[in-house]
Write a structure and sequence with these properties.
264 residues, 10 helices, alpha/beta, 11 strands, eight-stranded parallel beta barrel, TIM Barrel
């Protein structure tokens, strides 16, 4: 059996220090979702996960929160735009090796913002030759719209143990025909209940149902939800090794890209 090379996906870029964001955000030397963080990830040949939302002057900013309060302590760094990241990533295209970006839709008060952000991201993927990247956290209705307009677009369905938000679907929902015909890939995201999503049988079922990627969210991203693995790096390393051993996942999104890099 040929083992997959698991993609290291740096959550919100290669920020420093590494670790669960609620623990390190007041110690940043390189803040999340900045060009400096993205460049660090790309220099290390890691993929990037980032958040896209509508911003001032009809621009599209890469920021997790709906305001700048949490990152206002770092005035020397500025919020990145979608264009800036795509321009940066395009400079790392070498010998048909293309940077991989996982774009997450972040909604504002505009009920149509999900589909609108999806359209903009898809057009930027085309413009900057980043069509192998993915878009996730589109609702089923948004995915159906985007699939019709961009049939090549890699849409990942967010799969969690419960419907924690309107964009997170349970495995039973995601394995239904409406989902497998609108999404190509899976963003596997276990929030609180160990083994509910991260089990070999379920990941194999998802692998059979979807033609595209299966990416796994590392538990420390749910530090605030108290996932049992979220606070212990040694346990996380053992978890990553198990995911890699199953040989199903294409990528792991983590706040510890250097540690994952050391074993993958």
């Amino acid at each position: 059996m040929v083992m997959k090379k698991v993609t290291i996906i740096a959550h919100r870029g290669g920020f420093l220090p590494e670790g669960p964001i609620p623990k390190v955000q007041n110690k940043y030397t390189i803040p999340e979702n900045t060009l400096e963080a993205f460049k660090r990830a790309l220099e290390n040949k890691w993929a990037v996960e980032t958040d896209v939302r509508e911003w001032e002057d009809s621009d599209f900013a890469l920021i997790h929160d709906s305001n700048t309060v949490r990152i206002s302590n770092y005035p020397q760094f500025k919020i990145s735009t979608l264009d800036e990241l795509c321009q940066l990533a395009s400079r790392y295209i070498k010998n048909e090796q293309v940077p991989f970006i996982a774009f997450q839709i972040k909604r504002g008060s505009n009920p149509k913002s999900g589909a609108e952000i999806g359209r903009v991201v898809a057009k930027k993927m085309e413009q900057y030759n980043l069509k192998d990247s993915i878009l996730f956290d589109a609702t089923l209705e948004e995915a159906q719209i985007l699939y019709q307009e961009f049939p090549w677009l890699n849409l990942s369905v967010s799969v969690g143990e419960e419907n924690y938000s309107p964009t997170i679907y349970t495995p039973d929902q995601a394995l239904g025909r409406k989902f497998t015909s609108s999404y190509t890939s899976v963003w596997a995201d276990e929030w609180k209940i160990p083994g509910s999503i991260y089990n070999e049988r379920l990941l194999k079922n998802l692998r059979r149902a979807f033609s595209g990627r299966i990416d796994v969210v590392s538990p420390e991203l749910h530090y605030n939800e108290n996932h049992p693995l979220s606070q212990d790096l040694e346990k996380l390393i053992e978890f990553w090794k198990e995911i890699i051993r199953w040989n199903i996942a294409d990528g792991i999104c983590t706040d510890y890209p250097t540690a994952l890099n050391s074993i993958s």
